[in-house]
């Protein structure tokens, strides 16, 4: 049975997906245009195995979907609104001072 995630769960999933630079690069790539894994691996300069793991995470988070294309599988954003959200987040964060860094969280989850 399919249940809807709470707002907090949805944002947490989105945050986990965006927490990794490779997943961010994948999302920005498929934001431009749907892509095949082999092309994404070449474009991003990572192994297909590593890419596969990140794509699985993005699928599990509900951010990308697969589209069968003959013997190949195309990846695209799960919803066009995600593209708008990514653009909004990207431009909002650009307004932050470039000499500031985002601190890693400690074991308590605090910055």
Automatic annotation (TrEMBL):
<dbReference type="InterPro" id="IPR036390">
    <property type="entry name" value="WH_DNA-bd_sf"/>
</dbReference>
<dbReference type="InterPro" id="IPR052543">
    <property type="entry name" value="HTH_Metal-responsive_Reg"/>
</dbReference>
<dbReference type="InterPro" id="IPR001845">
    <property type="entry name" value="HTH_ArsR_DNA-bd_dom"/>
</dbReference>
<dbReference type="Pfam" id="PF01022">
    <property type="entry name" value="HTH_5"/>
</dbReference>
<dbReference type="InterPro" id="IPR036388">
    <property type="entry name" value="WH-like_DNA-bd_sf"/>
</dbReference>
<dbReference type="InterPro" id="IPR011991">
    <property type="entry name" value="ArsR-like_HTH"/>
</dbReference>
<protein>
    <submittedName>
        <fullName>Metalloregulator ArsR/SmtB family transcription factor</fullName>
    </submittedName>
</protein>
<feature type="domain" description="HTH arsR-type">
    <location>
        <begin position="4"/>
        <end position="100"/>
    </location>
</feature>
